[in-house]
Design brief:
Layout: E1 30-32, H1 43-55, E2 58-59, H2 60-67, H3 71-83, E3 87-89, E4 100-103, E5 108-110, H4 124-147, H5 172-187
Parallel strand pairs: 1-5
Antiparallel strand pairs: 2-4, 3-4
Length: 220
Amino acid sequence: MPSPDATDQDRNVRLPETGWQGWFDPTRDAMLTPSRLRGLVHPIRVRLLTLLQEDGPATASQLGRRVGHSSGVTSYHLRILAENGFVEEDTDRGNGRDRYWRSRYRQTSFTFRSPDDPPDESNVELAEQYVRMVVDSQYARMVAFIESMPDRLGELPNLPWTFDDFRLRLTIDEARALAADVRDLVRRYARETSATANQSDAKDSLFLFQMLPDDDPTRQ
């Protein structure tokens, strides 16, 4: 749960005119633009923020075990995230010895299309680093599932998890419409974690999709 002033930073961020409505709530979510990435662009910080957003409040020690670092390392990076407004101390939890941290936002998104903060030579490299870290994290999850296949041998025929790719020829407007349609479809299945906590057949799932220009230099 973000703090009451969690939208202070977002009041200065003008959102793109289209493409975000419905899935983005400025009272609960953060929209990052190139100049707002400072303090976040580090593999450990991106991972810590993701864990806090996905799994809720945790201590530096708990997070350290998840990311494979000492509590001292995670405490250092949590402080930097806090200084830049991404996380805060959860004063409703813990005791004098255990300090809990929580994300100030339900989710964090990134855009190059904010009219007030377009990419330029001074920040595009930072944005590239951030996007690369996010994609590397998504790729690692896909590889982890593939490597788990031998352990799932008996259930593989019945599992719904899949990877697909489709080659399309789209105008810019069609590409935007397709992305919006996909988000609308996914929202039909999106539920707060607590809503399915007691369903034995419900499993935390990750839906990924990419839509990129097919700039294959080998294609004539």
